[in-house]
Amino acid sequence: MQTLLEYLLPGSCALCKMRSKTSICDGCLQDYMLNTAHRCQQCALPLTALGDKRCGTCLKDTPDFDTTLVAVQYDAPVDSLVLGLKFGAKLNYAGIIAQQLADAILRQSTLSPVLPSLLCPVPLSRGRLANRGFNQALEISRPLSRRLGIPLQADLLWRTKETLQQSSLHPDARHKNIQGAFTVNPVWHTAIHGRHIAVIDDVITTGTTLNEIAKTLKRYGAARVSNFVFARTNRH
Asked: Which residues form the Double zinc ribbon domain (predicted)?
C-alpha cells in the first residue's frame, strides 16, 4: 500500500523538484544542507583561519548575543525556501527549514553545549503581520520546538515600534531603525531572569535586529542569548 501511494502521490524535493520520498532529496541534502563552513561562534560569518573562534568584527565590537548557529549559507537554491515561505506563503516550507535547522543545531552542539531553556521567535510589527498574515519566524519555531524538545514562548517579546524593512536600508541606518523596537511581555519580566534563551529567525544579515533583541532580553535579566537562524548571508 505504501509503495502504491508513493507511485500515485509522488513527492518532490523542495529544491531540485525531482521526485523524492523526502522534502529534501539526498543529493540536495549533500550539496546544500550540510553546513561544513568554519564560522564565527558569535555571528556565524565564515572564517578563513581554522584556529579562529570569532571574527574580527565581533572581537572589535562584541554583540550582545552570545552565539549564533545557522544551518546554511543564504545562496541559491536554498534561498528559495526562505522566499517561498516569507513571500509565497508556502507554510509547509517552515517545517523543512525547521528540520534542517534542528539537525544543524544538534550537529553543532559543541559550540553551545547547554541548549537553551526557551525559544523565542523574532516578532513582526502589527502592520507587517496584518499584511503578510503570518510570522515566518513563529512558523519555523513551532516545529523546531517539537524537534528540539525546548518550550516555545511565542509572545515573550513584543514589537512596540513600526520599523522600515531592514533589508531595504543601508547597514549604517539599520541600528537607528531598530533601536528601541522591542520590549519583553510584562508577564515574563521576572521569569526570564538567569535563563538561556534562543531567538529564532529565518535569515541573519548584519545581525542588527538580533542584537537589539539580545540587548532587550539581557536588560530583563537573561543570562545568555543564542540565535538559531536558518541561513546566513555574506557580510555585504
From this structure: 4-59
